[in-house]
Backbone:
């Protein structure tokens, strides 16, 4: 059943401290109010922690001073209206693991840091194979670290929206398989903890897209989740995101969701944005809260947070990885993809998610055995498109020098990539259609909405809690539904995609290019419309510490070209540095 307003009021009253927590919990038991169970569970867990006296617990604090400070930020996108979610008690994240955390000492945490922090999958698998640690310790390490960071009011980043209660038990089962002779490849996802962006289905946790409207969306596994689990990956939990994949409000900060709060950038919590919409996935990689993470992109939603958080982000060709079971924006442009700290890990994660999905209309374009290879090859003779307008970008020019110094050829190109004013209409028209399809076919029974109009009405009932920045894009979509029919929407799609494809095809043909080089998520919209895959890699840090990424763009289904050249640049630059306060 949908949650009633009294359920939300109960949760809000708990947060505000009226009535007492004990009274709320007694009322919960008496009336079986589902929304309050997590709070009561967390309360008793915190009570137990306090009794032990040596374990951290999260406490809600007055954010007004920080918010006033942020209101003076020169960048209006940093003018936050809240930091922590009004509905999430963070103690509920680690409450299922109190026994394991109690027996996992601070000394063991420190001892494992060199084996885990900034280490790629191959290094972690080698440590497990040597007996230096187990998969169970690996998952426990991350949960312990998440608690350490999220209970510290000077370091919390709100990157994680929920944790899988079965994560450590699953790791133990995989440890037993390994002890019984299971062979594990050095680049295998077997035993590796993964965070999923919270628009990707996992039956052990709600799939919320950051919205209170989907708070009870206990949907089944997405296709890529099934693939990950079949390959032995451990779903550690869900990463926060920009609500509804950042197609929700106008002028709102990236990284905000009602369910998860405001995601913060570990390289500058109150200085730099996280990028969106896979904000939690990017921030979690920056702070080493999991080994790898999965994001999704419609237009820049992997490239933006990966580059903003000095991470590697692979936006595949739409049709390379399944979208079934993922809360959508656009069936034309949506794709899932890896966000990691290395190119090798992006390849391993991509391969573990790949597979033919007959239910995804884009998938017939590929074969069942689609995979990438991580290799260190020479870029000798590779032709790199260098965008003329970036001639004054020092990091970009340094990257070109590294690659050409290793044998690649630089080809100057002119690229005018202006956002088409009707792009939002295309996304809005497709989200109206595709979200309704998801809600009918994949959402859990009892979810409070079934279409865009009902989402608009749901948020309007309590805008301070559900839509503090407004819902300008939802309002736009409701109006657009009346104006843009199916035929008009298809004509718009053809017009925008054809224009983008023609522009990039011409540039690649004229220059005989293998890849086009860009910066961060610039040109992400053009690449998305043309369905060109892209890979972003840490390139360096501005004087104030803001990360900068080099982004490679290639023709459709040429991800291997991106990976090959990206691996060379990563080896030559070795640019990524762990954020100072998260070491």
Residues:
């Amino acid at each position: 059943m949908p949650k009633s307003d009294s359920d939300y009021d109960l949760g809000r009253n708990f947060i505000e401290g009226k009535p007492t927590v004990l009274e709320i919990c007694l009322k919960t038991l008496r009336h079986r109010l589902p929304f309050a169970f997590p709070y009561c569970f967390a309360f008793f867990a915190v009570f137990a922690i306090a009794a032990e006296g040596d374990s951290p617990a999260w406490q809600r604090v007055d954010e007004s001073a920080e918010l006033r400070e942020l209101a003076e930020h020169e960048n209006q996108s940093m003018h936050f209206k809240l930091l922590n979610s009004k509905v999430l008690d963070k103690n509920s994240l680690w409450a299922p693991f109190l026994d394991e955390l109690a027996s996992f000492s601070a000394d063991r945490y420190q001892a494992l840091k060199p084996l885990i922090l900034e280490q790629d999958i191959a290094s972690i698998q080698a440590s497990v194979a040597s007996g230096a640690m187990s998969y169970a310790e690996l998952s426990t390490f991350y949960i312990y670290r998440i608690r350490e960071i999220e209970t510290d009011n000077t370091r919390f980043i709100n990157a994680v929206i929920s944790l899988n209660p079965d994560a450590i038990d699953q790791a133990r089962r995989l440890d037993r398989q390994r002890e019984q002779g299971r062979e594990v490849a050095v680049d295998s996802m077997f035993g590796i903890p993964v965070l999923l962006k919270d628009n990707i289905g996992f039956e052990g946790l709600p799939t919320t897209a950051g919205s209170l409207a989907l708070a009870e969306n206990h949907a089944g596994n997405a296709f890529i989740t099934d693939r990950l689990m079949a390959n032995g990956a451990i779903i550690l939990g869900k990463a926060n995101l920009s609500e509804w994949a950042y197609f929700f409000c106008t002028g709102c900060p990236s990284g905000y969701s009602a369910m998860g709060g405001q995601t913060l950038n570990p390289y500058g919590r109150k200085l730099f944005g996280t990028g969106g919409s896979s904000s939690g996935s990017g921030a979690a990689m920056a702070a080493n809260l999991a080994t790898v993470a999965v994001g999704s992109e419609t237009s820049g939603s992997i490239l933006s947070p990966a580059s903003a958080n000095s991470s590697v982000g692979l936006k595949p060709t739409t049709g390379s990885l399944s979208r079934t079971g993922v809360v959508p924006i656009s069936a034309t442009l949506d794709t899932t993809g890896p966000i990691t700290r290395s190119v090798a890990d992006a390849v391993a994660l991509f391969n573990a998610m790949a597979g033919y999905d007959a239910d995804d209309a884009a998938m017939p374009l590929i074969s069942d055995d689609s995979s990438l290879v991580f290799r260190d090859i020479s870029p000798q003779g590779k032709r790199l498109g260098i965008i003329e307008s970036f001639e004054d970008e020092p990091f970009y020019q340094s990257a070109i020098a590294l690659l050409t110094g290793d044998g690649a050829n630089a080809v100057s190109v002119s690229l005018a990539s202006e956002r088409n004013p009707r792009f939002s209409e295309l996304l809005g028209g497709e989200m109206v259609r595709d979200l309704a399809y998801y809600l009918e076919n994949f959402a859990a029974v009892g979810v409070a909405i079934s279409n865009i109009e009902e989402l608009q009405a749901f948020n309007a009932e309590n805008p301070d809690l559900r839509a503090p920045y407004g819902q300008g894009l939802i309002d736009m979509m409701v109006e657009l539904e009346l104006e843009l029919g199916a035929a008009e929407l298809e004509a718009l799609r053809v017009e925008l995609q054809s224009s983008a494809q023609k522009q990039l095809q011409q540039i690649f043909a004229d220059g005989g290019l293998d890849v086009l080089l860009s910066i961060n998520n610039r040109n992400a919209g053009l690449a998305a419309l043309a369905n060109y895959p892209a890979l972003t890699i840490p390139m360096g840090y501005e004087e104030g510490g803001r990360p900068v990424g080099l982004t490679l763009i290639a023709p459709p289904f040429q991800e291997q070209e991106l990976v090959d050249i990206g691996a060379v640049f990563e080896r030559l630059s070795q640019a990524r540095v762990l954020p100072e306060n998260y070491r």
Q: What stands out?
A: The longest strand covers residues 534-541. The mean pLDDT is 91. The chain is about 40% helix and 10% strand.
